[in-house]
Amino acid sequence: MRVLKFGGSSVANAGRIASVIEIVKRANHAEAPLTVVVSAFSGVTDALLGMVRQAAVGDEAYLARADALREQHRAAAGELCGTLGGEFAAGLEAMHADLVKLLQGAALLREASAQTLDQVAGFGERNSAFIIAHAMCAKGLPAQFLDARRVIRTDAHFGAAHVDVAATDAAVAAHYASHAILQVVTGFIGSTKDNQTTTLGRGGSDYTAAILAASLRASVVEIWTDVDGVMTADPRKVARAFSIPKMTYAEALEMSHFGAKVIYPPTILPALKNNIPLLIKNTFNPAHPGTLVSHESPEAGTAVRGISSVSHVALLTLQGSGMVGVPGTAARLFAGLAQHDVNVILITQGSSEHSITFAVTPEAAAIAKHAVQAAFALELASKLVEPVRVETDMAVVAVIGEGMRTRPGVAGRLFSALGANGINTVAITQGSSELNISVVIPRLDEGKALAALHEAFFLSKTKELNLFLIGTGVVGKTLLAQIDMHADFLRQHRGVQVNVIAIADSKRMVFDRQGLPLANWTQRLAADGRPTSLPAFVDEMIACRLPSSIFIDCTASEAVPALYSDILQASISISTPNKIAMSSDLARSRELKALAERRGVILGYETNVGAGLPVITTLNDLLQSGDRIIKLEGVLSGSLSYVFNHWKPGTPFSALVAQAKSLGYTEPDPRQDLSGHDVRRKLLILGRECGLPLLQDNVTIDNFIVNGAGHGAAAFAAPDAATFMNELAACDDALGEKLAEATASDRVLRFAASLDHGRARIGVQAFEREHPFASLGGSENMLVFTTERYKDRPLVIRGPGAGADVTAAGVFAEVLRIGATLFSGRSNSW
Ligand code: ASP
Ligand code: MG
Q: Cα separation of 717 and 282, whole Å?
């Protein structure tokens, strides 16, 4: 025997029922007979309960609703069976008449007892099973309607009756002994010893199927629903959720208790006890294998089978010195709750016994508070316990899997994934079965937590990085183009999905939580962009509550870095080529770093120095591995590198500056480069990275032009760039002499920055031909680290240190590095 159960959405209308009959026909073969259990048409149970409640308050609208329901059933029956035969039509009509009588009774009495509610609610299944049995016959599949009240025997706990297994077994055996053809059974309903109609609780048709299967010693229960089995998480909340091929009864039980709506939890017990596998299948996608629930745990695979959540709970805490070491406290508390019929979702008690925290549904919060305070009235009065604290707007997220038992570190991974996304855990429980770790978190963070945990436990095949970019100058633009170009590669080969959620320039900003299309972001920004407001951008970014979020500042503005602390505070990482934050106020730059650390996120500014060259990363690697920096020397300005690398005796200095300017290497006013102020920012950043409390004034700048050429000071003071360029020509001779001097002693001149025993200097210096700086070409940057380890031969980093391409690539690489750290420790063994 096999039992197939079809839920409400599978039998929502004639069309759906026709496909159900096809499924049943395909499954029907002589070796293993079938029993089919059906729910009411979708929405019908709610409609029936609505009607009886209306009747009970004297709202006559119930009559029209009852008529509409009659039409709905007749229409489906007509569509499936053609003209309604005498007995069939009479059967439907009799049920309708019964229903109307009951409703009228409720209207007269102005009340609907639990008993009446059950009787009314049962009409949905009675109609649907009756119609489907006839439809099967009409479509050439012999079948017979079975009203489950004849076989499912229960107690009189209306609304959620308990099954009398022995009586049910006997009734089922007797019925099946004389009914060999396919039975189409009403789900959800049963009856008491004295033949009162009961129901098994909302969603109870699954349970009916499992009870029948147990009685019939069935080989399988197939639960046909509208999704592809049990999913790793709610697909409406986690886009990457997928269906679980196999899981154990215990896992299915935990999943269904914590919000997975696919199976009605009591269903699992009869199946488990009788070792009957449950197969969850999709009527809308019958080819999908669905989920098999059995005793067998899939060997290999993940420690965590799935993640579930209860979206809205209230958390109550009882605490006070009067609870410490007092046996029976918990018993009293929970007895108090039980007396008021409050169902507890989760419990934790600290080992200090100073407090007990538990979660209930939000509707139960007030009554739970009252119940507990009543139970501890004396202690409350004598201040041995405090008034119960109630926190609403909480959610419970549970990770579930038998594999967690044998694998240490699951909790660690869970908390680091939540921590890295700035989600505060308010309470934690792990059952001693180690099958489930539940955490209570603020409700707003539910989606983010589910997505982050789904990734953390490798349930998601790809990890997502969510980027928020501000600044679409050359670097920002190039970065977007690079991301667009490499997105497929990253997804396919690195399992990383890069989503650009927001883009803003100085005028407009556009957000798309699904990720903006990068091929035409300019059009999107123009079409859908709102006026840019920095605070609004940050607020909306935070409100997105996406895991693994990274803010990218590609502006040169001072206003954007002013928001870094708000961003880090919200546990969003930052990557930026903007030097302002790390090179301005020392205390603030330190604060930002500390804040990032506290929030478990990353503040990345590798491209502040040497653009894409790995300068800061290398420096940190050296420092962290215990090396000591003796001296740092750098050519850190691409434009000045170009000028000095090309300066040969006979070439006027001013001509080279003009050339560099026309190539776009210098700032519009080349004095900004020549003054050394930009290089000073870089040197400050490097010095601070070494732990020195460097301030701008600690850096000595020797202005080559002002100090080195007679007319230099006057030239530098020129009112505008053009005048400066003209007057610089007047310095060419004096500057040429300096070069000649250096050349005579076989040296080269370079615009260098150095940090030597804590002394920071910037200026033009002469270097021997052997010095690494002497070999520089083009507009290259170079960093020379002389350290304890690299004493005789310094460590040299050299390469293009400016330009949109390399800077954007540096930011891109940093973003991926941040991602790797946020996902850190997530090795494939999970
Ligand atoms: N029709 C009932 C309900 O809506 C039982 C079921 O569908 O499982 O709760
Ligand atoms: Mg760099």
A: 79
- Per-residue confidence (pLDDT) for residue 14, from 0 to 100: 96
One-letter amino acid for residue 428 of the chain: I
* Alpha carbons 705 and 42: distance in angstroms, whole number: 85
CA dihedral of 349, 355, 359, 365, whole degrees rounded to 10? 160
Ligand nearest to the CA of 612: 2
As a whole number of angstroms, the distance between CA 605 and CA 554 comes to 11
Q: In this structure, what token pair is assigned to residue 95?
A: 């049920």
Q: Give the C-alpha separation, 86 to 569, whole Å.
A: 73
Handedness of CA 174, 175, 176, 178 (dihedral sign): positive
Distance between CA atoms of residues 143 and 33, nearest Å:
12
Residue 315, amino acid: L
Q: What is the pLDDT of residue 830?
A: 34
CB 188, CB 122: distance < 8 Å: yes
Closest ligand (CA of 203): 1
Give the whole-angstrom CA distance, residue 487 versus residue 498: 7
Q: What is the pLDDT of residue 300?
A: 60
Q: Give pLDDT, residue 299.
A: 65
- Find the 605 Cα to ligand 2 centroid distance in Å: 8
- If phi > 0 it is left, if psi is from -120 to 50 it is alpha, else beta; for residue 645 that is alpha
Q: Which residues of the chain have pLDDT under 50?
A: 825-830
Cα torsion angle, 74, 80, 83, 85, sign: negative
Sequence letter at residue 575: S
Angle at 445 (CA atoms; ends 444, 449), nearest 5 degrees: 155
Place of tokens 């029922």: 17
Distances (CA, A) of 254 to 309, 323, 398, 671: 11, 31, 9, 69
Residue 651 is predicted with a pLDDT of 94
Amino acid at 653: F
- Residues within 5 Å of ion ligand 2 by Cβ? 606, 610, 613, 615
> 631 an active-site residue?
no
In whole angstroms, give the CA distance from residue 626 to residue 291.
53
Q: How far apart are CA 272 and CA 267, in angstroms?
A: 9
Report the run of H or E that residue 252 belongs to, with start and end: helix 249-257
Taking the centre of ligand 1 as the mean of its atom positions, its distance from the CA of residue 127, in whole angstroms, is 13
Catalytic residue among 246, 579, 593, 682: 682
Tokens of 711: 């007319």
Among residues 209, 243, 203, the alpha carbon closest in space to that of 223 is found at 209
Q: What is the DSSP string of 626-641?
A: T--EEEEEEE--HHHH
Give, using CA atoms, the residue closest to atom 8 of ligand 1: 203
- Helix orientation angle between 653-662 and 638-645, rounded to the nearest 10 degrees: 140
Using the atom order of ligand 1, give the atom closest to the CA of residue 207.
Answer: 8
Residue of 45, 185, 283 to test ligand 1 pocket, by largest number of atoms within 8 Å of CB: 45
- The vertex-639 CA angle with 774 and 808, nearest 5°, equals 110
What does the angle CA 800 – CA 803 – CA 808 come to, to the nearest 5 degrees? Answer: 100
Give the residue, out of 16, 205, 256, 261, with the most ligand 1 atoms within 8 A of its beta carbon, to mutate for a pocket test.
205
In three-state form (DSSP H/G/I as H, E/B as E, the rest C), the secondary structure along 665-686 is CCCCCCHHHHCCHHHHHHHHHH
Q: Which helix (H) or strand (E) holds 603?
A: strand 603-604
Q: What's residue 102's pLDDT?
A: 96
Q: Do residues 398 and 309 lie in contact, with contact meaning Cβ atoms separated by under 8 Å?
A: yes
Tokens representing residue 209 in the block: 């199927």
Residues at CB less than 6 angstroms from ligand 1: 7-8, 39-40, 45, 124, 187-188, 202-205
DSSP annotation of 163? B
Compute how many other C-beta atoms are within 10 angstroms of the C-beta atom of residue 51. Answer: 27
> Closest-lying ligand to the alpha carbon of 186?
1
pLDDT of residue 827: 34
pLDDT of residue 456: 86
Q: Indicate the length of the chain as a whole number.
A: 830
